[in-house]
């Protein structure tokens, strides 16, 4: 008999037990439970063929078609499961907790593996993720114009023991047209939500946590709608820093990249910069005048940020003026401002 468990219990067990995701590779690549290993019952083309057979002829013909494809590879699938099994136990799921997970659970049981199947499959996990991320908690949004070292400040606060969700780290992107430089490939939007949930569920919900002020998308990744909307209603602490204080750090972070990569990044916002400023910024990059190029780009980003700030629904927007780029000093100032918030 196959043991089915709900998503809450499944996630509890996943802290110490491995997960086998038996969906097709393309399903897995679109989004999966972080840490899961893909042992697909069907490859993408096989799943398509079996699915068509099911729709046109019904369940039994689909099963027979599936056996035709999977029969020769059952041994290797069991061997893969045995490799990742811990203490003879394994968690398994497919899309809805139906035939695929049941078939693989039967196969794995032949190897004396104790299998627990996620009731409702990955679909129930995604529902759980989005439902959980919709919960309103004590969130503090750190705002400030590009180059204010917000990410560095949040990481410093995290090192001091404060709760932080680093959205840009999870998205593998720094949030601007230049944000992909030096970063790993971005996850899908779906997978970003799954990774975000992994950090979210570790938080002490009784204590506040920090996030950086972001637009709806970070590069190609979109923040889950309800999470983003909740951000708009939360207290915002805005770091106010003069442009001349911001430029040196931005030069240090970006001037090491190839000029061609920098020019391509400028071109991404050319419509918003306008023809003249785009040309001036590109010329500045080509001549090595990175300070000028950054100043031109910041003019656009500063205006865009101030426009976005005015649209927020939060009643608590606190401005913290600083005259230095020192991470520790500025972190202490915004932390002090946050301590005065009344929840």
Task: Show the helix and strand layout.
Elements: E1 3-5, H1 7-13, E2 19-21, H2 25-30, E3 37-38, H3 44-57, H4 59-70, H5 74-84, E4 89-93, H6 99-109, E5 114-118, H7 121-133, E6 139-144, H8 150-159, E7 163-164, H9 167-171, H10 189-200, E8 209-212, E9 217-218, E10 221-222, H11 225-232, E11 236-240, H12 243-254, H13 259-268, H14 270-273, H15 275-286, H16 290-310, E12 317-321, H17 327-339
Parallel strand pairs: 1-5, 2-3, 2-4, 4-5, 6-8, 6-11, 7-8, 11-12
Antiparallel strand pairs: 9-10
Primary descriptors:
343 residues; alpha/beta; Oxidized Rhodanese, domain 1; Rossmann fold; 2 domains; five-stranded parallel β-sheet; 12 strands
Produce a short descriptive summary.
Helix content is 53%, strand content 13%.
The helix content is 40-55%
CATH fold descriptor of the largest domain: Rossmann fold
Whole-number total of structural domains = 2
Note poorly predicted spans. none
Radius of gyration: 25 Å
Strand tally: 12
- CATH class of the largest domain, anyone? Alpha Beta
Strand order of the largest sheet: 1-5-4-2-3
The arrangement of helices and strands along the chain is: EHEHEHHHEHEHEHEHHEEEHEHHHHHEH
Which class do the helix and strand fractions yield?
Answer: alpha/beta
Beta content: 5-15%
Main sheet makeup: 5 strands, parallel
Global morphology = elongated
> Which architecture of the largest domain does the CATH hierarchy give at level 2?
3-Layer(aba) Sandwich
Query: In angstroms, what separates the terminal alpha carbons?
Result: 50 Å
């Amino acid at each position: 008999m196959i043991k089915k468990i709900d998503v809450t219990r499944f996630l509890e067990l996943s802290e110490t037990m491995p997960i086998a995701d038996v969906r097709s590779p393309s399903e897995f690549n679109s989004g999966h439970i972080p840490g899961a290993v893909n042992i697909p019952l069907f490859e993408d083309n096989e799943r398509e063929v079996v699915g068509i057979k099911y729709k046109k002829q019904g369940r039994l013909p689909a099963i027979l078609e599936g056996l035709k494809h999977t029969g020769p590879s059952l041994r290797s699938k069991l061997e893969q499961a045995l490799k990742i099994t811990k203490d003879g136990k394994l968690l398994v799921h497919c899309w809805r907790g139906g035939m695929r997970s049941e078939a693989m659970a039967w196969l794995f049981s032949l190897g004396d593996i104790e299998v627990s199947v996620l009731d409702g499959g990955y679909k129930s996990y995604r529902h759980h993720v989005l439902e959980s991320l919709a919960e309103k908690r004590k969130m503090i949004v750190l705002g400030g114009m590009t180059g204010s070292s917000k990410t560095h400040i949040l990481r410093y606060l995290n090192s001091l023991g404060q709760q932080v969700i680093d959205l840009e780290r999870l998205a593998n992107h720094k949030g601007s047209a230049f944000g992909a430089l030096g970063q790993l490939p971005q996850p899908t939007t779906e997978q970003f939500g799954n990774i975000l949930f992994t950090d979210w569920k570790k938080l002490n919900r009784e204590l506040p946590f920090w996030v950086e002020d972001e637009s709806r998308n970070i590069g190609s990744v979109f923040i889950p709608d309800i999470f983003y909307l909740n951000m708009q209603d939360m207290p915002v602490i805005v770091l106010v820093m003069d442009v001349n204080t911001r430029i040196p750090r931005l030069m240090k972070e970006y001037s090491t990249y190839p000029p061609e990569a920098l020019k391509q990044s400028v071109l991404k916002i050319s419509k918003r910069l306008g023809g003249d400023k785009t040309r001036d910024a590109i010329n500045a990059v080509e001549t090595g005048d990175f300070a000028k190029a950054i100043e031109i780009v910041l003019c656009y980003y500063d205006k865009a940020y101030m426009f976005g700030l005015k649209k927020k629904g939060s009643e608590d927007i606190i401005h913290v003026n600083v005259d230095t780029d020192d991470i520790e000093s500025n972190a202490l100032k915004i932390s002090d401002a946050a301590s005065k918030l009344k929840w």
